[in-house]
Amino acid sequence: MELVTAMLVRILLVDDHPVVRQGLKTLLEGRPEWEVVGEASDGVEAVEKVNALQPDVVVLDVTMPRMSGIEACRLIQQKGPPREILFVTQHDSPQMMREALAAGARGYVVKSNLARDLVEAVEAVSQHREFTALARNSPQS
Amino acid sequence: MKLRILLADDHEIVRRGLCALLQKREGWEVCGEASDGREAIEMAKQLKPDVVILDIGMPYLNGLDTTRQLLQHDPQLKIIVLTITDADQVIREALDAGARGFVLKSDAARDLVSAVEALQSKRMFFTPRVNDLVLRGFLDKGHAISRNEPPDLPTLTSREREVTQLLAEGKSSKEVATLLNLSTKTVETHRSNIMRKLSLHSIRDLVVYAIKNNIIQIQTPSPITSSTQSPLA
């Protein structure tokens, strides 16, 4: 019998819509070694929860009240040890993707393709690999 | 017997979230998922759900026109609309169309189960703001809701509204004809009738009309520096 050692990945979900967070959780549930350790509904709360919970991966929306995901990403990377950050957004824009990566993110996927891309993207960033996919392009990791 | 629910929203991640919320309830079953209004109508005919949950801003056929068409086919059908705004005109149109549940998307995690329960017990479910509006309208005038700005909608037929949405989404007459199973000539006749009835002169005017009258909804994400919220960005 092959022994598989799976690393536990602790994930923080950040989106201002509870229904979207619920949908993200449902998509991530298939992997028993992944654990959603917390949720936040804006950038300010995201920064606080990263400090409190020390997640391995932060799944982060771009447009949120109080503080955008891009700003939160910068602060998270400035304040503490580097985190793996995956943007999940409706902005299907190469420019926004570049901005997200420049802010310190490792991944960028658009909401319209989440069923296809989310699990693969979380897997990639949790292993410190870059993963980006706009709506019309094939994923790149 | 299980309560059978049909869901329609163009965002798969939202459908996943809604499904997860609804399927926690024993005795409820999501019997189908549609990603636009036209698909919802087809699925409702086949699956005969007890409750239909419709997003208002969907491509091809918006949730309000889908509500109208579904109720024409089955007046007993229980419909809940999901919306990103509870602006007066949207509330009025949803009620006029025949929806008996009205839930803000941002509050869906809290309100959707209660809304389905209400409709299951032959009651209605509205956000507090809708309740206020209905009550205010009743107290002020003895009518359901005051009408400060009557929409231009009644001048168009159901078919013309469908054509309006598709043209405003940027489709050509030929594409509209294929989607609606009509001849291009018929679509062009509809198009000239629509322009004449509404006194419009260009497709740009038609797009503005469609936005103003909630036939299409703009979901462009807001700039990230802004603190305003976009529907799902």
Describe the protein's architecture and organization.
The complex is a heterodimer of chains A (141) and B (233). Chain A is α/β, with parallel strands linked by helices and 141 residues long. Chain A has five helices and six strands; from the N terminus they run E-H-E-H-E-H-E-H-E-H-E. The mean pLDDT of chain A is 89. Chain B folds into two domains: 3-141, 3-Layer(aba) Sandwich (Rossmann fold), CATH 3.40.50.2300; 153-212, Arc Repressor Mutant, subunit A (Orthogonal Bundle), CATH 1.10.10.10. Chain B has helices spanning 12-23, 37-47, 63-73, 88-97, 108-120, 128-141, 158-168, 173-180, 184-197, 203-212; strands at 3-8, 28-34, 51-55, 78-83, 101-104. In chain B, strands 2-1-3-4-5 form a five-stranded parallel β-sheet, with helices on both faces. In chain B, helix 1 crosses helix 5 (108-120), helix 2 packs parallel to helix 3 (63-73) and helix 7 (158-168) packs across helix 9. The A-B interface holds A 16-27, 61-66, 68-71, 89-91, 96, 99, 111-112, 114-115 and B 11-21, 105-106, 108-110, 219, 221-222, 224-227, 229-233.
CATH class of the largest domain in chain B: Alpha Beta
Q: Uncertain runs of chain B with pLDDT below 50, 5 residues or more? A: 220-233
Largest interface, C-beta within 8 A: A-B, 31 and 28 residues
According to CATH, the homologous superfamily of the largest domain in chain B is: Response regulator
Q: What about the largest sheet of chain A?
A: 6 strands, parallel
Q: Which assembly state applies to the chains in this document? A: heterodimer
Order of strands side by side in the largest beta sheet of chain A? 2-1-3-4-5-6
CATH architecture of the largest domain in chain B: 3-Layer(aba) Sandwich
Rg of chain B, Å, rounded: 18 Å
